[in-house]
Amino acid sequence: MQYEEYRNIIMSGMVEYVNNGGSTFHIGNAVKEYFFEYDNELLPHDDKEFLTNKAVQAIYKKKPLPDGIKLVRCVWHGRREQ
Length: 82
Prior knowledge:
This protein is an alpha+beta fold. Helices cover about 40% and strands about 20% of the residues.
């Protein structure tokens, strides 16, 4: 999955966050939660975790996701200040 493909998913999450009252002033502190689908759902948990970690690293670098994984949703959460 190329950056151009998953960029819209991430931006949709941001729009949802703002529309639900999320702070635009503190948007840089928002926590993003990623939901993925795997080409092979029968992969062992460790392999899925490895693919997920590689995918998140690729998202931060705006690079293509590794083969076998696809971003399906991104939810933004406001960080709770204590």
